[in-house]
Amino acid sequence: MAQRKAEQPEARSADLVIITGLSGSGKGTTLKALEDIGYYAVDNLPIGLIPKFSELIHDSPAARRAAIVVDIREGESLKRFPALFRQIRKKIKTRLIFLEADDETLARRFSETRRPHPLGTERPVKGNILAEREQLAPIRMLADYIIDTAKFNVHELRDVIGANVVGARDEARLRIDVTSFGYRHGVPPDSDLVFDVRFLPNPNYIPEFKNKTGRDRSVARYIRSFPQTVEFINRITDLLLYLIPHYIREGKSYLTIGFGCTGGHHRSVMIAAEICKRLAHAGFKVKQSHRDILR
């Protein structure tokens, strides 16, 4: 369960998220989730470099949003973190995420991954977990978000980060590319979903449409005039609106949907444009492209 502990500073141009917490609590997954939605991500940045790093993201247009992981691997230097954190958040918008889980869950995760605890192998894992809790207690008190990851799988944790930390809607976490193509030029190799629209009447055989494309209103009107076109668009829209939330929950960041006709000029172009419009209307982030329209 995610808890809010501290009030956020007023919004500034730069945004730094610092991820910390117990080993095995999901810091790597959290960093990856933020990277997938546009944060510049750095794992295990040395404590001494954090002030300089915060200055860089403040001044760099290319990295205005950044996320870093700071944890027990820092050793004795970790004691300097509370003072540095207070100093940095006076200059730029900085938020601290603290991840944790119960001892049994953390011990099980170490057993499953067979990775040694960062505090060494001289004592049992549970002893290291207890020692780590004690060392991180002062940092935990500074956290803006405390997230218990015991009941979350990887995908659920990504959802929690998106909703609680970034405030992102589910729809914003998946970038969709709707593209048209011609089968005579091959299927786009990066397509996740491909739909063949060659069953629709071909405008290429109508002299007045031959040198136009599916972007032309008269061509689009002709294709849409057939009942099978309307039914296909409605059915595919319903299918995608069902599938896309499942892709999001599974952590997918990109989805490429291809619509193919013979040459990639008419039917596929019109269908791709219509589906793109409908997905955008449903709130998804969609990009439209037509690979073979000029061939």
If helices are DSSP runs of H or I spanning 4 or more residues, what is the number of helices?
9
Mean pLDDT: 87
Structural class comes to alpha/beta
Order of helices and strands: EEHEHEHEHHEHEEHHEHE
Question: What's the number of structural domains?
Answer: 2
What does the overall shape look like?
elongated
CATH architecture of the largest domain: 3-Layer(aba) Sandwich
In whole angstroms, the N-to-C terminal distance is 54 Å
Q: Give the DSSP E fraction (strand runs of 2 or more residues).
A: 15-25%
CATH top level of the largest domain is: Alpha Beta
The CATH homologous superfamily of the largest domain is termed P-loop containing nucleotide triphosphate hydrolases
Across the major sheet, the strand order is 1-6-5-2-4-3
* Largest sheet features: 6 strands, mixed
For the secondary structure, the number of strands is: 10
Give Rg in angstroms. 25 Å
Helicity, as a percent range: 25-40%
How would you explain this protein's 3D organization?
With 295 residues, the chain is an alpha/beta fold. It has 2 domains: 2-168, Rossmann fold (3-Layer(aba) Sandwich), CATH 3.40.50.300; 172-290, no CATH class. The protein is 39% helix and 19% strand. Strands 1-6-5-2-4-3 form a 6-stranded mixed β-sheet, sandwiched between helices. It is elongated and about 80 Å long. The termini are far apart. Mean pLDDT is 87; it is low at 6-12.
Q: How is the secondary structure organized here?
A:
Elements: E1 2-4, E2 15-21, H1 27-36, E3 40-42, H2 50-59, E4 65-69, H3 81-88, E5 93-100, H4 103-113, H5 125-140, E6 145-148, H6 154-166, E7 175-182, E8 193-196, H7 217-224, H8 227-249, E9 254-261, H9 267-281, E10 285-290
Parallel strand pairs: 2-4, 2-5, 3-4, 5-6, 7-9, 7-10, 8-9
Antiparallel strand pairs: 1-6
Helix pairs in contact: 1-6, 4-5, 8-9
